[in-house]
Amino acid sequence: MGLATTSLLAFLGGMALFFSNTFHLPWTGPARYILTGFVGPIAASFSAVVLLRLAGRLPAGGARFVALAAAPAWALAATAAASWAVGFDEADANQGYSWFGSSTLLFMIPGWIAGTACLAVALYSLMVSRRSHPVRRLQAVVLAAPLALILGAIMFMPPMMGTLGAMVLLVVALRQSMPAASRDVVPPRVVPRKVVAPSRRVVGGAALGLLVVGLACAVFAVTGSTWAPIATDSTHAMKLGLAYGAFASIPLLVLAGRVLAPRLGPTTPWSVLLGCASMVVQGCAQLLGAGHTLQWNGILIAATLMGFAIALPLGGLVAGGRLTRITVVAMMGLAASVVGLPVVMMSAFLAPIGSAVLLVRLVAGSRRQPRLNS
Length: 374
Fold this sequence. Notes:
Order of helices and strands: HHHHHHHHHHHHH
Mean pLDDT: 85
Distance between the termini: 60 Å
Number of strands: 0
Largest sheet: none
């Protein structure tokens, strides 16, 4: 749990540096590579090794080798990413390359070899096959080589995947730390609450209306500059369409919350409230216009609110005491903001899709209902 928490905090710190206004300061680049290139990945690797070892899927010798090989693999991968960034900046400056900026392959190739060896040992232990040991080793190496390359390539990207991966490791570690009896027993609700399902006709009519409104907002965002006098240019039309689409998503969230409340649990109203607040902030941020100093900050706030809206229903997966659950759900909300960011930015185009999915779900549900014979 401590390793998974360390990994998650490192990735969250790197993500904050990446999306904040301090990204262009000279110290943020090295700090981000240290956090998301070494501390976060190595702590996540150690956490995964411990979980596999506790589950009996990884022998002691293999666990030690994977843990020892993961450290140089991630260190070389982070160094290769930093070398590539320096070389990119030097190419823009057109003043020649330093030894560090031109040594990306020198760091990447041994890092790839170490990562392949690390993953090959882990995959070999996880494989369940009746084939001979040489064939299993070859299969493990063939699978580990591209997987190591993919994981290394993630170092060049924003720390979104690492944040979500560390969050999954933390939830698994919390559940593994509980006794088996505690994981299997579901505590009864003190006061059973009956959720009244809304009328299918009302939900269908509202979803159809929201589908039309959402499509209109999406069409305006793309083509509004050619026919709407209120849009001065294509950028202005896009911003207005995104803002109107975000506001139009609010009743859709309320409607979806009413329909999905029996499945999502008692936190549904709070999730809907946070989602609606996110859409309000997103709409206002888009109305500020491109280039406004507060627009990006508003989008980040909207993404964070949407992340907590996504994380609240998942709080039931977290095992532990009250303080532990609150802390982990708070970190889950911050981690889920990496998903909330594209959701809020594309909300005007996702709202019609959500309305269509709701309509299809209602039609499919009505067909499955048995007919009563007179």
